[in-house]
Every structure is written in C-alpha cells, then in structure tokens.
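Sequence, please.
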C-alpha cells in the first residue's frame, strides 16, 4: 500500500471523525414486542463486539508502523477504533431506548478477543476482517428483518462504514500477503477462508432467528459471507499494491 493510499485512508477517517453519520431526528422508532424478542440477544452480542477493538490493536499497529516506517498508520487505526466505538454507542442508545439489556460477556466475543490478543498486527487484521465481513452481511440482514425505521437507518450507517473498514483492511492485508512466498500465500488464503467459513457457521448457529427472518438459510448465509470474502480477498493481481513506507 503506497503512502498515497494511506493518505487517502487517513483523509477518509479524519473526515468521518469530524462529520459522523447520524440518525436523523424524528425518524419513526417503533419496535414491536415480537421484533424486540427476536433481535434482543443478537443485537446485544454485536453491540459487545463493536467495542472490542481497542488498546491491543492500537499497540500492535504502532509497533508494526514503526518497523515499516508507516507514519500515518497509527492515526488511521486510532480513528478506526473511534468509529467502531461510535457503532457501539449507536447500538447502545437504540437498545436502551427499547429496554434491551446490554451484554457484558459472550463466548463468541471472548474467542475473537483472545485470538486478537495473541496475534501481531497482521494476524489481528485477518481476525478483524473476518468479523467485519460477517458483520456487514449481518447488518444487512438485520435491516431486512426489522420494520423499525430507526433501526433500518442505523443498520445502513453500520454497513456503509463497515464497507470502508473492509476496503482499508483488505487493501492492507493483500499488500502484506503479496510479500509472502507463493506456498505461504496459498496457506494463508486457505486458513483465512476457513476462519471466515467457521465463524459464519457459528454466527448462523447463534443468530439464526434474525438471519432466517431476513430470508437466509444456513447455506445462503455461508455463501454470502464467502462471496464477500472472495470479492475483497481474492481479487486479480492488478488490485494488489505493495506496502511502502511514507
Ligand atoms: Fe463496526
Ligand atoms: Fe468495522
């Protein structure tokens, strides 16, 4: 990834930090009791996940940026973390307004946290991207599953911002993967695709009532997650830029 690419991403995150997307005031905010029961445990797990990127990622990014002389990377990661924390806050306010209890622990979130804790920046990116790809499919499904206008707009904001996160992280990851020798590249691709498929299966098992309401079955959900993986992480060679210092 060139210094120009990093500058573009820095501008992107700085612009959205200064101009955060907001839910318009006065939007209809009716969530039926049946919908509330359907989404409550599911949305609470995703709200918990939204706040999980933080100090560990920032430290890993700083060490990585120092080794690679990528001066703007720590600031980009800092702004990315703030954006994820805004996602958590948007969901939290919605949940509080509808009497949905927050979660403070969930085994799927704990597994992701542990994986990221033992990883360096590059491996952290693999795990993070896996969560982002599946999260994007999930928020689209949540939007389709509800008739609540406020929640629909909230989901659109999340999808829009997760897409930018996926764009940034996949561009960086592809550049890093391109530096590896061919057999290792192949191994990393297979391992990452397996991680995405495994995580999608777990998300199906634990959020299937929302996903079913949106029209997904287990196969179509898995196919959708893997199609996103393929689109972003198995592109032709023309889209892969190298990581170069600023
Ligand atoms: Fe997010
Ligand atoms: Fe994200």
């Amino acid at each position: 990834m060139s210094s120009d690419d990093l500058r573009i991403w820095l501008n992107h995150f700085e612009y959205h930090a200064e101009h955060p997307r907001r839910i318009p005031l006065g939007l209809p905010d009716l969530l039926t009791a049946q919908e509330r029961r359907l989404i409550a445990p599911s949305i609470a797990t995703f709200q918990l996940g939204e706040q999980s990127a933080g100090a560990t990622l920032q430290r890993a990014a700083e060490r990585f940026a120092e080794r690679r002389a990528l001066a703007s990377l720590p600031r980009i990661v800092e702004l990315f973390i703030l954006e994820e924390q805004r996602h958590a806050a948007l969901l939290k306010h919605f949940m509080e307004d509808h009497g949905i209890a927050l979660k403070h622990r969930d085994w799927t979130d704990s597994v992701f946290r542990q994986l990221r804790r033992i990883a360096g920046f590059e491996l952290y990116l693999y795990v993070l991207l896996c969560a982002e790809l599946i999260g994007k499919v999930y928020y689209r499904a949540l939007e389709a599953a509800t008739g609540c206008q406020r929640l629909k707009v909230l989901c659109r904001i999340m999808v829009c911002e997760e897409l930018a996160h996926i764009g940034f992280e996949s561009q960086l990851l592809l550049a890093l993967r391109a530096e590896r020798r061919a057999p290792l590249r192949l191994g990393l691709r297979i391992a990452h695709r397996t991680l995405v498929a495994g995580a999608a299966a777990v998300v199906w098992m634990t959020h299937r009532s929302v996903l079913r309401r949106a029209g997904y079955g287990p196969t179509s959900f898995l196919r959708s997650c893997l199609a996103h993986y393929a689109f972003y992480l198995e592109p032709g060679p023309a889209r892969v830029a190298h990581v170069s210092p600023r």
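The two ends are 10 Å apart (CA to CA).
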